[in-house]
Amino acid sequence: MIIKLGPKTISIPSARWPKVNVPQLRILSALRIPLPTTLRFGSARVGLLSLGVVAIGFAGTLFLVIAGTNSEMLWPEAGAEYALPNIVGNPLPPDPETPALINQTLRINLADGVRLDKLHLKNLDLGKSGLTNSFEITRTTGVTGAWVNVGLFTITNSSAPTLDWANMEVGTLNLGAYVDGHTNSSVINSTISHLVIDSDRGSGSYVAENSTVDRVIINLNGDSGATIGELIVDDVDASVGAWDFDYLKVGTLTMGNTNQFGDGSGINSASAVFNDTVKARSITDNLVDTPLKVQ
User: Fold this and answer.
1) 282-293 burial by CB neighbour count: b if 16+ within 10 A, else e?
2) Which pLDDT does position 206 carry in this prediction?
3) Within 13 Å, how many C-alpha atoms sit on residue 106's CB side?
4) Are residues 91 and 14 in the same domain?
5) pLDDT of the residue at 75
C-alpha cells in the first residue's frame, strides 16, 4: 500500500491473511471486495471536505445549545412580573386590548411579608394609548388588609396627566407639585403613627432605571403585606394614564415642586385628587394650581 502525505510517499508492504480453514473467511475472500491501494492526505479537496465536516458539527452543536437554553427575564426587564426578592421574572401575556403586541408592563409582585431596603424607580417613561392607570399600587384578588409599609417615600422630577390617591396612612405628608387643578380632601388624624423602618437586616435593594414601559404595577401578594425602608420615584414620566396609589402606610411622604400633573382640562377641573381616605398626622399643602397638560 502507498500513502502520500503532501510531497512525501510512504510504502507499506502488503499484508496477507493467514491461511485459516474457516468457512466464513473463505466466503469473504470469494467476494473479492476491492481495497484502495493509495491514500492521499493534504489535497485541496480533502481540506475543503474537512472544513465542511467541522462547520456542520459546529452548526449542530450551536443549534442544540440554543434549543436547550431557557430564556430567562431578569429584573427589571419589562414584560414580566417579579415576585421580589426573586429577580427572575415570569413573562406576562399580551394585553387583551392589544393581543398582537408584546406586553411591556413592569409588574412588581411583593411577596407576602417581604422586606426591602430600597425600591428605586428612576428615569422611566410610561404610557400606552387606552391605559387607565400608568402607575398603580394594588392587591391581588382575595388579599385583604395588606399594606405596603414604607419608611420614606420621595417623588421628584416626575409627571403624569392625572393623579388619584386613596386608602393611605401617612405620618408626615408634604405636597408641593404643580397641578392643573386639584382636590385635597385628605384628613388630619392624630392617631396615625409615624412609621420608622431603619433596619436593613434580611432585606435587599432593587433599582429599575433607564427604561421605557407601558406601566408600572406594585402589587401586594399576601395578607402580611410588605415592608420597604425607602421608596424613591425619580424622573418617572407618563404620557397616558393616572397615578393611582392605594394601600400605603408611610412614615414621611414628600412630593415636591419638581413634579407636574395635568390633563389640560383647566384649574377648575381637578387633575390631582387626594381622597378623604388619605389620613395623615401632619399635612403640608403647597400644591400650586397652574394650567398645564402632560402628554
Assistant:
1) ebeeebebeebe
2) 92
3) 26
4) no
5) 87
Phi, psi for 25 (deg, rounded to 5): -70, -35
Q: Could you report the per-residue pLDDT of 179-233, keeping only the tens digit for each?
A: 999 999 999 999 999 999 988 876 888 999 999 899 999 999 989 999 999 999 9
Same domain membership, residue 58 and residue 104: no
- Domain boundary residue among 67, 98, 121? 67
Identify the domain containing residue 237 by its residue range.
73-289
Cell (9 digits) for 67: 434549543
Whether 32 and 130 share a structural domain: no
Q: How far is CA 97 from CA 80, 100, 131, 295, in A?
A: 17, 9, 10, 21
Q: Do residues 284 and 256 both lie within one domain?
A: yes
Judge whether 295 lies within some domain. Answer: no
294 within some domain: no
C-alpha cell at 93: 401575556
| 190 CB burial (10 A radius; 0-12, 13-18, 19+) | exposed
Q: How many CB atoms lie within 10 A of CB 122?
A: 16
Q: What is the pLDDT of residue 52?
A: 60
- Distance CA(182)–CA(213), nearest Å, equals 27
Contact 143, 223 (CB under 8 A): yes
Residues of the chain with pLDDT under 50: 17, 20, 22, 25, 27-28, 39, 41, 62-70
